[in-house]
Each structure stands twice: as structure tokens, then as C-alpha cells.
Amino acid sequence: AVEIGQRRGGGLPFSGSACGE
Fold first, then answer.
1. Residue 5 — φ and ψ, nearest 5°?
2. In whole angstroms, what is the distance from residue 9 CA to residue 17 CA?
3. Are 8 and 2 in contact (CB under 8 A)?
4. Where is this region: Disordered (predicted)?
5. For residue 11, what are the contacts with CB-CB under 8 A and spacing of at least 6?
6. DSSP 1-21
7. How confident is the model at residue 11, as a pLDDT?
8. pLDDT reading at 15 higher than 50
9. Phi and psi (nearest 5°) for 7?
10. Mean pLDDT in residue range 1-19
11. Residue 7 to residue 21: CA distance in whole angstroms
């Protein structure tokens, strides 16, 4: 989950799709 958030380009260490997109 952490890797996904960072990989998605999200600022949070978890919700990548929520903070990345």
C-alpha cells in the first residue's frame, strides 16, 4: 500500500489513487 501511494505519485504514504489522482 505504501509503495502504491508513492508510486502513484501521491503525497500520502498510502492513498495513492486518492492523493495521486
1. -65, -40
2. 8
3. no
4. 1-21
5. 19
6. -HHHHHHHT-SSSS-HHHHH-
7. 58
8. yes
9. -70, -35
10. 57
11. 11
Cell of 3: 509503495
- Decide if 15 contacts 6 (C-beta within 8 A): no
Q: Which amino acid is at 10?
A: G
At 10, give phi and psi (nearest 5°): -90, 150
What's the predicted TM-score (pTM) here? 0.12
Residue 18's φ and ψ, nearest 5 degrees, are -80, -35
- pLDDT of 21 > 50? The answer is no
